Amino acid sequence: MSARQGRKLRAREAREAREAAAMRARAAATRRKRLRLLYGMFAAAVVVVALSIAISSGGSSTASAAGGGKLIGASFSSRLFAGLPQHGTLLGRADAPVRIVEFADLQCPYCDEYTVQALPTLVQRYVRTGEVSMRFENLSFIGPDSVAAGRVAAATGQQDRLWNFVDLLYLNQGDENTGYVTPAYIGRLLEAVPGLNLSAALRASRTPAAGGALAQANEVASQDGIDETPSFLIGRVGGPLRLFQPSSLQAGPFVQAIDGLLGRSR
Prior knowledge:
The chain is an alpha+beta fold. It has eleven helices and six strands.
């Protein structure tokens, strides 16, 4: 093993150790952040109380749908995407001046962090106004649960509901490679997606097309040099997309980058 390979291996092992140690604390923290966002945006008392109960019981996967508990965030997620155009993996107007491509694994805790902390602000401020479109490239390298969930996400994309399903999954994400992506878990998520034909989605998830969608996303990531999640490409329509490495997974760095592409001074 070369010195460079040794450094990469040690870095990977250190990262995995940090992720394992911080997983449950991060899940609780991100759900508390979503709770504050829910309260600020909608003041929906029923949702707030439900989320507060989930958080007070630990905020981990055992308190969410991944552990057989109450489904978290269905009302908020439904409102977030209500009325927005979706076409397969695309969210927002196809002719929006700014494009963002997200590469994510549905088991990735950092992808969950981005979805909770940044995505709602970006959707409300830019996608809903027609200024930004978002495309989701569903990678599936963490483990079997990634593949199982990814196939269902691809199936929901056939009904133009992928973004609803993915958001709900992140809000109810379990611990990596624990086998939490069960038929019962998937069924509860699908039942909470507005306007979705559940039985059709389940059938579609078992077809070669669903697996092909994951293979295609992995190929796109390879072509673009993407080797970690979440990763982002950003650019204006008609121009090249560039790799965007935010300083944090909160909304601020994304807002700054988008405003710059839109020609807005800060």
